[in-house]
Amino acid sequence: MLTLAFDTATSVATSALLEGGSVLGERTGTPARLLEDVDELLSLADAEPSELRQIVVGTGPGSFTGLRMGLAASRTLALALDVKVAGVSTLDALAAGAPAALPVIDARRREVFTLIDGKPVAASPSDLDTTVFQGRICVGDGAVRYREVLEAAGAEIPPDESELHLPRASVHARLATDFGPAELIEPIYVRAPDADKARRP
Description:
Number of strands: 9
Structural class: alpha/beta
CATH class of the largest domain: Alpha Beta
Order of helices and strands: EEEHEHEHEEEEHHHH
Largest sheet: 5 strands, mixed
Shape: elongated
Number of helices: 7
Number of domains: 2
CATH topology of the largest domain: Nucleotidyltransferase, domain 5
Helix content: 25-40%
Strand order of the largest sheet: 3-2-1-4-5
CATH architecture of the largest domain: 2-Layer Sandwich
Strand content: 25-35%
CATH superfamily of the largest domain: ATPase, nucleotide binding domain
């Protein structure tokens, strides 16, 4: 069974093609070239789009635009290929890719997305209780961006180039369990998009 998985919630988009539990190929790129990466994965595996049986998409939190691109791609492909879709939190995938690590995603506005008691939150890293980070390995682009702040709070950050900072799509595929209609997949925003705030009186 061929599974296509991708995540476009951060500045680095990841995609993967799996057959059963075996990874046939993985790509890292930008959200804007997601479909090109998918096409390359299929070509290298000598597979046709019609052979896909399920799709897994990252649901964030992360960039509003990136999230919408990923969800739109999953819905378009699901409709065209008549396959079901599962959503997986980008934070959960980061955590699963580095067991016991705390996922930290750059949320812009001088904030990060992370997990507190298993729930996604958005906050300034300097405003979070230092016990959240003390003795923890932190991974994700937020951990890289706020390395000094997090290390001062007692966290350990892998080198900037470490793949542990990427929400790998192959991990998304392994975490996915609940497949259904693509239109039922909801993004995890955590906070209102900038555009919504700008419209408020």
